[in-house]
Amino acid sequence: MNSIYKIIANPFANFAKNLCSRWLSGLRLIALLLATTHISAQEKISLEKAIELAKSNNIDLKIADKEIEKQTVLKKTAFQPEPLQVQYQGGQFNSADYDHNVSVQQFFPMGSITKANRQLQEELVKLAEKRKALSAYEIEKAVTLSYYQYLYGVSIQKLNSELNDIYTKFLKNAELRFQTGESGNIEVISAKAKVKEIETQKAQLEYDLAIYQKQLQFFVQTNENIVPDDKTALQYTMLKEAGNSKAEGLITDYYQQQISVSQKEANTYKAMRIPKIGVGYFAQTIDTKSLYQGFTAGLQIPLFGGVNTARAQASAISISQSQLALDKNKLTLNLQRQELENNFKKQQKALDYYQKEGLQYADQIINTAQKSYANGDMSYWAYISFLNQAIDIKKQYTEATHTFNQSAIELQFPSLKNN
């Protein structure tokens, strides 16, 4: 059973780490679940439905939705006036009498700082959306892999049942030949041992299938005992959209959005170097009798603007970093695509052989060997040899199909790496 693929990327590492951690925690529960309960009524669903449910139920995507919601709310913070200053002064500041002075002052941002803040926050909303799209991509891949892992388990079960039928017939023939004195007891003992072995494997396969089911259920994140639709073909059919194109589009959108955020950050820091204007009002008594009022106006001038200048320069460096990361990921995806395509063609060639010739040979070997052995035209040891050869072909076909599916899914969903 293949381990969960690793996403060696920033910002994808956190998602992969959380996904693996939860998956491993779920597997620890499987032994207890299998020991105490049997799988109840199972709901058969298509791959498309499983992916749809996963994207609807997945907690990581719900967290991503909350991040988008949070960044959207923060758009309201684009206009950032200074806190209102209210001051009271009392004492003998005009004469021997105790006078009072109350003043209120408010500073407001000038120039393009509000616009720059709003544009930055809009880009942060888009960045959160790009992160969610990447998480959804990884979830779709995980569900697809686990879906076909279960179908692989079903195919192994079917092969086991077929083997059981073959060796059960073999046992009957061996017993008949022994009763008629045509063969020794060794054939009967050997056949019984093989039947018992297959029955034991059947019990083990049931546990494997239960584990595969829990894996699928975990990725879909549902309490329902869902299983793949048994009408689904064992062989995975690739979508028309090129996997590398989709992955490259997602990774390009993400890093380009990072670049946009860094550009807007630089604009924001530059705008913070503009002075702020302030207006105020005061009311004051003189000799405790008369009330005098007035207005004030002023500027807050950032004399030491080197901090924001340095921050703007740092944002410009971040732009270069994101561009370099994008270039690296494009190169990595292109090389990965070539490797995956070669592996896919290799596995497809192997699968074609078994589908066009191998399985037919296996069936012919089994049928011919059974007839010859039943008629007494073939020795026990020759029969076993031919039978094992045919069974091995069928096993190799099942494994070839499983390996083909994995290569096809990997080609459809190339991993997003940044190492």
Automatic annotation (TrEMBL):
Residues 110-140, 188-215, 328-357 form a coiled coil. It comes from the Bacteria. It is found in: Cell outer membrane. Its main location: membrane. Keywords: Cell outer membrane, Coiled coil, Membrane, Transmembrane, Transmembrane beta strand. This is TolC family protein.
